Structure formats: structure tokens, C-alpha cells
Amino acid sequence: MEQRVLGRTKRDVSVVGLGTWQLGADWGDVSEADAFAVLDAAVESGVTFFDTADVYGDGRSEQLIGRYLKERPDAGIFVATKMGRRAEQLTENYSLDNFRAWNDRSRTNLGVDTLDLVQLHCPPTAAYATDAVFDALDTLVAERRIAAYAVSVETCAEALAAIARPGVASVQIILNPFRLKPLEEVLPAARAAGVGIVARVPLASGLLTGKYTKDTVFAADDHRTFNRHGEAFDQGETFSGIDFETGLAAAAEFGELAPEGATPAQTALRWIIQQPGVTSVIPGARSVAQARANGAAAALAPLPEATLDAVQELYDRRLRASIHPRW
Fold first, then answer.
1. Tens digits of per-residue pLDDT, 103-115?
2. 168 has which bridge partners?
3. Which of 93, 176, 246, 248 is the most buried (most CB within 10 A)?
């Protein structure tokens, strides 16, 4: 699989990575056996980049990855984790003492002395303008607790603020055919600054698979049930902030753009991969088949201009008016 340099880390990662929120069982139950099978299938498909967080399953995702890395030290996996969601979302809680405590927990979970990359987990907007926050991150690097740091953001304005910070290695942002705003300023600014871009929520919480209907029922503990209107966390995390029925109609049209031999999900991943400035896209996978299909998207031929134009037209016609200006 193609490898690209992840911004200021100077490390290569696969263009298709693996998001592991689901391994924490926050999207419904995932057994340990199934989790390890998914990790294996991803690695066998050429994936060298795992993305996790200290709050996914209250650390379960990190722990599973840590055990996997111990069993597969030859896999050459770069692991990005996140921190910041273990406390009330106040800028003053993004302190050096808290960072060290959260960092120690993640290092224990993952079984490493130095974390490859730690991303602030969608911090309060005020944190981006607070020098002490980034000074504390620089201290973690100096102490060799982390090799590099980054930020996972909710908005384009936050992404631009992060990119302007000289120590930020990469920015993780929601980007998919139903969320085009980052193409306008964020990706060009990241390219100019040498900052990596990690595209998250690439399938709009599964909408872009084309598998859902108005009768689809998600489990009660699935955020696609309990967070459609931002009841638990930022609404933009669920279906990219799109009304479910609006998204279903758009997804049906998007599915018609898939090239022969490719699924709608693979088409969405291929679309993201070829956006200038994107380093890696991190779809999740709950099964071996999904992990393999995600990896195969990297081998698809680039989408033609006609398809790219059709994605833009679909967004403008069906989605632009329904997406909150925040995103």
C-alpha cells in the first residue's frame, strides 16, 4: 500500500489506516477475538497506521492494540492516540499535570515508553490560542513521553489555528464526500506548512456505505442512536452532522458514482485519498471483510474528473444547505 509522510513526524504511514473507536465497543459489542482478527486483516492489507484514543472503551481500544503490538512487533505499526476527554472540557484542564497523567495511562495501555503521536481530542476552542497548552505538549516531547503531537479538530477554524502552531505535526479532521469544507482552506494551508492531514469519519458514520435505509435501527449504545442531535458530544461526529434522512437520499445518489468493481465505501475512501494534502484516511472496521475492503480502496484507480465534479454537484444540491456553518 502507498505510504505518505505524516507531516512533521517525518514518519511514513499507509494512505488507508484503521480507526479503532469501534474496538472500544462504543458502537456495540466487539469481542477480543473479533478485534484481533480485524487488526490482523488490516495489517495483511498493508495498513501501518492505527488511530485510537484513551477514552475509546475507557482504554479498551488502546489495550487491545497494545497486546496486538506485543504479539506482532514485526508489523511496523505507527499508533496515534488521543487525550483530553477524561476531564471536563475546560481549557484549564489541558494542563501539564493532566497531560502527564493521561499520557502515563496511554503508555501503560499501549505497552510503550514513548508514544508515536498524541493528539488533543477535539479540545475547547480557546485551547488553540493558549500558549501554555502547547508549551506543555513540547515538554512531553522533551521528556520523551511522546515523539510528536497533533490535534483532532471539529471545525476548519480550529484546524487553521492548529496548523499555525509550529509544533503541531498533523491535524485530524472530518473529511468525506458529504463534508467538503476542509478542501477550501485547511488542506492548502496544511500542505504549505508541511502538516499532515488525517481524514476521520470518512464514511459519514456509515452513510456512505449505502447500506442503511429509513428502517435501519442502531443499537441503543451506538452513537448513531443517541447522538443524532449532539446529545452526548459534537453533533458533527454523527453522520457528519447531516440529518439521517437527508443523508440517505444523498447516499443513494453517491452509490451510483461507484466505478465498476468498487463499493460505495471504497469509492468514498478513494475520493479522500486523492485530495491534495491528505496523508491518510482512517475508516473503522468491525469485521475482517470490512478491514480488507477498506485496504483494497487504496489500490483503486484515481477517480476521473467527471466523478469528482459529480460529488461536488451532489454536495451543493443536496447537502450544503443542511450542514451547520460550524462544519
1. 999 999 999 999 9
2. 149
3. 176
